[in-house]
Amino acid sequence: MQYYVYALIDPRDNKPFYIGKGKDRRVQSHFKEAEQIPYGITLSEISEDEMEELERFGNVEKLVKIRELFDEGYKFEDMARVLAKGLDEESAFTIECFLIKTMYGDDNLTNRVIGKHSDRFRPYESWNALKGYDVLLIPEDENSGRISKLNAMIAEKLDKPLKEIEKAFPEIEFDKPKVLDAGEMGIEADIEGTRLKIAIRRKNIYCELRCRKVSQKQWLCKHFEMLEKVELLRKDIVFLPNCWKGTNMTSDTEIMIERVNLLIKFVRIKSKNELSEELIKLLT
């Protein structure tokens, strides 16, 4: 079965708000999902509890947009537009990603992910010469792959929230933003006997304790032994609180500043008796 790439557009300005790929009746599925969203709802009026409840229907931002257009009298045929047809799946993936990342920019769409092959395409409205892309202008070197990825992330302004968080802790000396473990952008700093990592993966930001030296691993193990919570450390001696994983991940820098502050407090306690209620939650 052949694939196609499609856009969902806002008929009021003819601008796309979602790009997707599929086959058969994939594009219609969005509209069936949107019918589950309550009438008259807007993103600005949704509380956190309501957002969590609506997440069961899928991509809330996209579905609320469709619901809004439904409420104004627009129909499926007013919004759905096929951009490319008769494709094999890999070609569909490639075109979808190019449109999201380079042509329209994911910040201007409701897509949650850029798509497969995103590292192949130049970020939206990024016209500075980039290693790995503009090879005729910038010669390749042995580190060009990693540098290219870092430049692409900076072009997408992924370093902006990291800098905002760093600014909130002037007493801590962070490294410059760089490509870290799983290919995400992040900053790190030594704190007490361990190391603090703050990273951004697409739009979600997270912080954890990740040791880079044997001495740091030993320190963190002793810290958790003192708290009688060694089982919460991963096998590679990394600590990311369970309460911050999965659906509790966030793109809100203010929330991340609070979480970083908690981790700093956590590594500075000297005994179990110093654990506050908010720190105890990190160990559950």
List keywords for this structure.
8 strands; alpha+beta; single chain; globular; 10 helices; 5-stranded antiparallel sheet; 284 residues
Tell me briefly what this model is.
It contains ten helices and eight strands. The chain is of the alpha+beta class. Strand 5 and strand 6 form a beta hairpin.
Write structural notes for this entry:
- The structure is a single chain.
- This protein is α+β, with helices and mostly antiparallel strands and 284 residues long.
- The chain has two domains: 3-116, no CATH class; 159-282.
- It has helices at residues 26-34, 48-54, 60-71, 76-79, 89-104, 144-155, 159-167, 214-227, 253-268, 277-282, and strands at residues 3-10, 15-22, 80-87, 178-179, 185-191, 194-201, 204-210, 238-239.
- It has a five-stranded antiparallel β-sheet with strand order 4-5-6-7-8. A three-stranded antiparallel β-sheet has the order 2-1-3.
- The longest helix has 16 residues, at 89-104.
- It is globular and about 65 Å long.
- The termini are far apart.
- The relative contact order is 0.08.
Number of domains: 2
Please state roughly what percent of the residues sit in beta strands, choosing from under 5%, 5-15%, 15-25%, 25-35%, 35-45% or over 45%: 15-25%
Largest sheet: 5 strands, antiparallel
Poorly predicted regions are none
Strand count: 8
Coarse morphology = globular
Rg: 22 Å
Mean of residue pLDDT values = 85
> Reading side by side through the largest sheet, how are the strands ordered?
4-5-6-7-8
| String of helices and strands | EEHHHHEHHHEEEEHEHH
Helical amount: 25-40%
- Total helices: the number is 10
